[in-house]
Amino acid sequence: MSARSGTCIVVGASSGIGLAIARRLAQSGRKVAMLARREAELATQVELINDTLGRKAAFAFVHDAADIDAADGLFARIEQSVGEVDELFFVAGVMPEVGAEEFDLGKDRQQVVVNMLGCIAWGNAAARRFQQRKRGAIVGVSSVAQDRGRVGRPVYNASKAGMDTYLEALRNRLWRHGVRVTTIRPGFVDTPMTAGLKLKGAITADKAAQLVLKARDRQKAIAYVPGKWRPIMFVIRNIPSFVFRKLSI
Amino acid sequence: MKTPTWNDEQVFGFGMALGGPAKVLRPTTVEQIADAFAKVKKDGGSVALRGAGCSYGDASTAKGGRVLDLTAMNRIESFDPTTGVAVCQPGVTVRDLWRRAIGYGYWPKVVSGTMAVTMGGAAAMNIHGKNNYALGPFGECVKSFDLLTPSGQQLHVTAESDPDLFHAAISGFGMLGCMTRLEIQTKRVHSGRMRVYGIVAQDLEHNLQILEDMHGEADYLVSWLDLHAKGIALGRGIMHRADQMKPGEDPEGLRYFEPSLQDVPLKMFGAVPKGWLWPGMWCALHFGQVPLVNWLKFQAGSREQKHSPYLQTHGAFHFLLDYVPRWQWMTKPGGLLQFQPFVPKAEGARVLRKLIEMCHDAQHVPYLGVLKKHRPDKFLMTHAVDGYSLAMDIPVPTSQKGRESLWRHCREMAEIVLEAGGRFYYAKDAVLLESSFARVHGEDAVAKFRALKQKWDPERLLQTDLSRRLGV
């Protein structure tokens, strides 16, 4: 059982689901270290939270999730300046536009580095400390996209699958030490990352954050957000390959 | 990219009572606007500029002429989260702007009752909100704009660079050029919600008294009036006051910075689509049940007052006109006319009382009245006075005789307003004549405006039904 009093780290906190999670954590009385790449956006959001709550609950740390070597040092710095961390939310993710016939290693590398290696860097930094302290919680936001490799975004699928499998391994390693690891697989969520897409029935980032925190509280291993995606993805996962390759989903 | 073409369409004002067929072009770039200007000039015609078409009267219509509809130029080019300044194309709507701003803790300084209006339209008509007495009109949150003049010149205008043009193009109802980019200042808010009070006002004087008592501390004040009430209850209504939160006052308001939680709900009780409410309202209006509906609404006011203050999102407080989509269809087929006089403070009670009595006598009783407080501003064609305005929504009869009687009635009312030193607002007006134009603004202001028109648009390329009516 993770204590609910220490500092939380949210990686990817300047917009979308990460921002909504940070807001809800701050509102519930926690101290939140908010990490993001865009300095002006991050500073505004941190100020907005502190200003609305009337107390210093959010702390800004400019960080590019692609800078994986910096993760461990920054983790230590956050613990030093804000307080002992007992929860990590890894929400950073990139999903560049990829054409149907495009094989661009630059874009692919960026997705693997941010979505997968970024999660591994922060997961490792947290796991090492939480395992020793025998408490803590790690929540990683993966995607329903990880369930199948699809024509649209091959490396987004692959990077999220890599992250998802890593989180599963971390869960299995850490549960015996009292540390909980939850994998979130969101479906359609209305965020800046998905702004250009027409997603039917998308939920709001705030709703997604609410469901993420609920899954954490219930110590779920894997949570689809919202829950209706579990049966949908069950069906999609079980479409045989010779059929699936002909589909455009 | 496909070049847009002139299409034959029906172009009406928001009140659906004025307008008619026109050739409409929807440009997507500044070059296309310039090309359209050049082409119309070559043909020797004129063109009307139009945003979302939310002006009630004929400010954006050109019966039998050409209309340049700017709604396709709807990109917010940038939003600075540190300063809250948005750089917008002219077709960006109030909705687009607040959806972008609220996530960073900003809200547009001035918004209208519907979020459909565009930035270009809002600046050209110099719209006001429920805080006009405090923050002034929309023009006061425009830091700068780019103006494409009919001669094809592109100017970057600020209040310092060219004060005359700045203060005339804003409020100049699209007569001096087309704004192609606007820099809009938004304001900081410390919660996604506001504290709202409903206050029952027993008559017109009570309403005005509340406006005077509260305008010092209230951020927004607006009163709904039941104009069917007569005698001692004449001008009764429900005043709504909203105050912004101070830092730390509403921690729960943090999650309401999520744009989707600000949107006006489009379903009643979570199920009934509100888009289908207007036929019910149509029945109430056409079968004479408006007095009953107003009476019920007024009675509900005391319950609201008992439960005040309550918390409401910015969106839910401001955009009352968006609560019921297509509400104005209830006035079909005649449409509606909104008559909104602006009356100086000293004459307020007398003139407004007289106007309401005249409506009863002429049997053109408005189904809706909205009372607001205003302050003067520096814009040339301003409608604001140090006083009050009463917006009256009157259904337009379908018969020619009824229509003429309504217009006559409104012109009689306008005469009383002008005698008292009052003004009118071109986003609403449908009745003023050329002879009244100078009386609204004063001879000097009108002469100055005409001189600017002569300077920037000597060939009279920019014309609307409104400008022809006023003889600009």
Outline the structure in words.
The complex is a heterodimer of chains A (249) and B (472). Chain A has 249 residues and is α/β, with parallel strands linked by helices. Chain A is built from eight helices and nine strands. Chain A has a single domain (7-244), classed as 3-Layer(aba) Sandwich (Rossmann fold), CATH 3.40.50. Chain A has helices spanning 16-27, 39-53, 71-81, 105-133, 154-174, 205-217, 229-237, 241-244, and strands spanning 7-11, 31-36, 58-62, 85-90, 137-141, 180-186, 189-190, 203-204, 222-225. A seven-stranded parallel beta sheet of chain A has the order 3-2-1-4-5-6-9, sandwiched between helices. In chain A, helix 1 packs across helix 6 (205-217) and helix 4 (105-133) packs parallel to helix 5. The N and C termini of chain A lie far apart (39 Å). Chain B has 472 residues and is of the alpha+beta class. Chain B folds into three domains: 7-71, Uridine Diphospho-n-acetylenolpyruvylglucosamine Reductase, domain 2 (2-Layer Sandwich), CATH 3.30.43; 76-188, 2-Layer Sandwich (Uridine Diphospho-n-acetylenolpyruvylglucosamine Reductase, domain 3), CATH 3.30.465.10; 193-246 and 285-434, 3-Layer(aba) Sandwich (Vanillyl-alcohol Oxidase, Chain A, domain 3), CATH 3.40.462.10. Chain B is built from 14 helices and 20 strands. In chain B, a hairpin with a 3-residue loop joins strand 14 (267-268) and strand 15. In chain B, helix 10 packs antiparallel against helix 11. The model of chain B has no long low-confidence stretch (mean pLDDT 95). Chains A and B meet through helix 1 and helix 2 of A and loops of B.
